[in-house]
TrEMBL record:
NCBIfam families: tim (TIGR00419). Homodimer. It is found in: Cytoplasm. HAMAP family: TIM_B (MF_00147_B). This is Triosephosphate isomerase. One of its GO terms (molecular function) is triose-phosphate isomerase activity. The gene is tpiA. Substrate binds at N9, W10, K11, G169, S207, G228, G229.
Amino acid sequence: MRRKLAAGNWKMHGLAADLDQVDALSVAHPAPECDILICPPATLIARMAERAAGSAIHVGGQDCHHADAGAHTGEISAPMLADAGATHVILGHSERRADHGESDALVRAKAEAAHRAGLTAIICVGETETERDDGRTLDVIGTQLSGSLPATARAQNTVIAYEPVWAIGTGRTPSAEQIAEVHAHLRARLVELIPGGDDVRLLYGGSVKPSNAAQIFAIPNVDGALVGGASLKAADFSAIITALENA
Ligand SMILES: O=C[C@H](O)COP(=O)(O)O
């Protein structure tokens, strides 16, 4: 039985005053029937981890370097994230793949670094609109998965997030059939690629909101969500968490 996961990605949003959201969520969900994770910008990780101590809320990073330490100005390593109180890290988000040219091989190296530091890697995959229109979605997703997944990946340290690039921040979502097709494909590939692949959690991400969460969580092989915009407001993220608990 895979425990569900509601993960919020704050992206480049959030100042100290926004840490109040953690208090609101921990009051609303003192003993949730799913895992709850917030990935704030790096500047807030340590303070958020302190704020979340004793609650059911986990804190994660949005990226890490593939090396544990070194002369890499501006970068943050996986051991640093763990030291700050993070338990998870998002890797290979399409915004990083697009903005920073991150390849599957680099994402894989980062995931290995995350595992060395004891972090759970949330590895993102997703097709562009052109790739979907060309009928290449499953090929693209399969290639990203096999290229980004390190040999160290197991259900205990790895989560896969399917995020169609065209659905991120757009208000558009794939049909239930389209999500089900991709998640079934990911599940089959995971079973082939790693021991215990059937137990790896698969998240959907891309314009998840309180109004569509229950419908998305009813889709087979959807074990939770990676939520962007709607995770910035505690009331909206709380409603999504509740939908996941009830799924
Ligand atoms: O990491 C989160 C995703 O990019 C989804 O973002 P969104 O919920 O704002 O569409």
